[in-house]
Amino acid sequence: ARTVRRDADGVMTVGGVDVKTLAERFGTPAYFIDEADFRARARAWRTAFGPAADVFYAGKAFLSRAVVRWLYEEGLNLDVCSGGELTTALLAGMPADRIAFHGNNKSTEEITKAVESGVGRIVLDSFQEIARVAHIASSLGKRQRVLIRITVGVEAHTHEFIATAHEDQKFGIPLADGQAAEAVRRTLRLDGLELIGIHSHIGSQIFDMSGFEVAAHRVVGLLRDLRDEHGVELPEIDLGGGLGIAYTSDDDPREPHEIAKALTEIVTRECEAARLSTPRISVEPGRAIVGPTAFTLYEVGTIKPLERLRTYVSVDGGMSDNIRTALYDAEYSVALASRASDAEPMLVRVVGKHCESGDIVVRDAFLPADLAPGDLLAVPATGAYCRSMASNYNHALRPPVVAVSEGEARVIVRRETEEDLLRLDVG
Ligand code: LLP
């Protein structure tokens, strides 16, 4: 499913509504999410793995109460990584046993809330946390289901800030030097914890399956050692998220059923070689589900041609609604959305309205030379890590998220107001 289409006049539409109507009704900048596309992708992930696996949508990519309801209805589980995400999930009616709680430094309050509300699993990230969760669970008279996140030592081919399984970073317990095995031993001895599996997340925006192959090989190696040493066979492997999406036409993502097939084959093969019964697999896609389903709509404000260089096109948002270009050198595409044009293409840089020159939305793009203030621009594939990482830099008001489906549009996260900002300023 493609999120953005055009009507007969060349105006982009989403979910059966054209962007001029959307801009008039909801203002710009705004994120528009195609609900049917979101549901279809969520469903495709769930059905791709079938009943032998669990799909946990990674809420950090984008979370709101409506999204939680869609996930619930489509039969997915939810991965949260903060008290705020947990509260949103529970308030929106996600059953606690379908929630996984992540994070490398969960607070005592967060752990207590997670255990009290009965989350299905907590993913343990350090030796201290093993002790902390065990203590909290025991004092609440509970036995908490947990996984241990290990660092398998894989160099994922992605931006350094979003690669997470090489050794020199903050997540997980290293497989190296027997540390992961020691973490398992300790966890097995603690009454408050029920160890159900091992977790590995190698990074994000990954296309090459070989990283998952190495990760699965190493996780299964650990499971085999544990069986040999302690006679325990852990029932589950969680391979995390991280599957890439197409931001520009150069990216070539795989379909969920291909990924499911590849991951299942890798785990099955490794387990057969180790003579282990195949564990249950779980995965945590965030970007791959929500990323392609939304786009950001901006209005062009000023246009500044710089001789021999390029034309700077300033829009009414910027790094406060999409930090990814500045932070990761992420690439996006952009299209004139409010009309058709057969003018010559010109080289542009689409920039925001913030007070720094790194405030770039799309570094290099071509837009028609007759572009004018008031035109609407659409930047596709902004569903993941844009609204969820949005900021109030320069006291920007964070844009709304509008769900569009079958010709109807409704706000699911409203636009911030100056009152919202001032409410926090109590000085
Ligand atoms: N599971 C765990 C344990 C994770 O840490 C993450 C992402 C995911 C699943 C979901 O990964 P996904 O399928 O969405 O790639 N802000 C960055 C991405 C940070 C990802 C952090 N963890 C970006 O905008 O690219």
Automatic annotation (TrEMBL):
NCBIfam families cross-referenced by the UniProt entry: lysA
Protein name: Diaminopimelate decarboxylase
Cofactor list: pyridoxal 5'-phosphate
Pathway of action: Amino-acid biosynthesis; L-lysine biosynthesis via DAP pathway; L-lysine from DL-2,6-diaminopimelate: step 1/1
Statement: the UniProt record of this protein carries the keyword Amino-acid biosynthesis: yes
Family assignment from sequence similarity: Belongs to the Orn/Lys/Arg decarboxylase class-II family. LysA subfamily.
Keyword line: Amino-acid biosynthesis, Decarboxylase, Lyase, Lysine biosynthesis, Pyridoxal phosphate
Organism: Streptomyces macrolidinus
EC number of the protein: 4.1.1.20
Entry's Gene Ontology molecular function annotations: diaminopimelate decarboxylase activity
Residues that coordinate or bind substrate: R287, R324, Y328, E356, Y385
Keyword Hydrolase applies: no
Residues where pyridoxal 5'-phosphate binds: G242, E284, P285, G286, R287, Y385
Reaction catalysed by this enzyme: meso-2,6-diaminopimelate + H(+) = L-lysine + CO2
Domain Orn/DAP/Arg decarboxylase 2 C-terminal: 297-383
Cited function: Specifically catalyzes the decarboxylation of meso-diaminopimelate (meso-DAP) to L-lysine.
N6-(pyridoxal phosphate)lysine modification, residue list: K60
